[in-house]
Amino acid sequence: MAEAISRRAGTPFIRTCTSEVFKRAGLDPAAAMEFEKRLWIQKETLEAAKGIWEAAGENFITDRTPLDMMAYLLGDIQGGTGADFNEVEGYLERCFTATNGFFDALVIVQPGIPLVHEQGKAALNHAYIEHLNYLVMGLAGDPRLGAKVIRLGRDTVEINERVRAVIEGLGI
Fold first, then answer.
1. Given this structure, which CATH class describes domain 2-170?
2. Closest Cα to residue 107, out of 22, 18, 6?
3. pTM, whole model, 2 decimals?
């Protein structure tokens, strides 16, 4: 979808390559992992993405944002997780800073289309995807976020309809 929006808007598409960061670290994004390892790989993912976005220049469209990264980290925290709050909060703050530094607008694409498994991608458990969606929606309302947020409804499922809604929402 991001590539289709990019073509329609005439703005370069930049692939974040999150799965490549996991692959280089010898990790499977769909596998369960200890929280400390999750925090470490999310930090690595953020730094890799920042490098890609910095090299892209000012205007681009991408497939992932730091909000996604925050949601994946927060999605792994449970009542018994031994997470250091200061370390987690520091990571979240770095994600908000990166979001505000690289993005004028974010598009939240809520679950609505059938999930398709791709090798090297995160787990496709419907409940987990829903959990991540609600985390992203909550993060999008955080006062630390400076970017404009466009939310695609669950009923916006056809690709051309999605692209049109985003183009209109961005005013391009």
1. alpha beta
2. 6
3. 0.89
